[in-house]
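#structure-requests
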Amino acid sequence: MVGHVRFHSRPDPEYLRPYARDAVEFGYTIFERYRRHGYATEAVIGLMDWARALFNVRRFVASIAHENLPSLRLVAGLGFTKVGEQVDEIDGLEHVFLCEIPSDPR
């Protein structure tokens, strides 16, 4: 095991509504020994693809501590945009990012 990735809730929880409706938030951890090998990027893409394909989820939120530069680079590279800030009880100040995947034009 190199880490873990998960959703924090079902789509459209009340706490995400100020940022986006029908969104789902995810989080991930890569254990220090395995960082900088692309595992987080692969896990996030896989999780988003799975949620889109099986449940038609198209809005994803990630909350990242302001000093977590690797994760900030990861979400920027995946097309997330900053939509707000919040203070987490454990992590302190976090930036809130949103990625909206357009519907298939079929």
